[in-house]
Amino acid sequence: MTKHTVIIFLSVLIVVVAIGGFPAWARTTILVLSGIGIAVLAYLSSVVYCSNCKKLILDAEQALPKTDALSEGSSAAPPQNI
User: Fold this and answer.
1) What are the CB-based long-range contacts (under 8 Å, 24+) for 59-65?
2) Is the entire prediction scored with pTM above 0.90?
3) Quick one: CA dihedral 73, 77, 79, 81, positive or negative?
4) In angstroms, rounded to a whole number, what is the distance separating the alpha carbons of residues 74 and 37?
5) What is the SS3 assignment for 64?
6) Model confidence pLDDT, tens digit, residues 14-53
7) Could you say which of 27, 42, 59, 67 would form a disulfide bridge with 22 (CB–CB 3.0 to 4.6 Å)?
C-alpha cells in the first residue's frame, strides 16, 4: 500500500468512526491515532528524497562566488553535512 492509499483509508476510517455508534473512549482513541497517522504520513509524503543531493550542493557551492568575509575565515559556522 502506498502512503496516499493509507491516508485515504485513515480518512474513511475517521468518517466511519465519527458517524458510527462507538463508545466515547474508543471513538476518541481511534480518531486521535488516525489523525496522528495522517499527519505523519502527510509529512513523510512531502519529504523529497534525493540520491545525489550532496553532489548538487557541491555544484551549487562551486557556482556561487565567495565573498571576502567568508573567504578570510570570519566567524561564520562551517557547513554541516546533511
Assistant:
1) none
2) no
3) positive
4) 45
5) coil
6) 899 888 888 989 999 999 999 999 888 888 777 666 666 7
7) 27
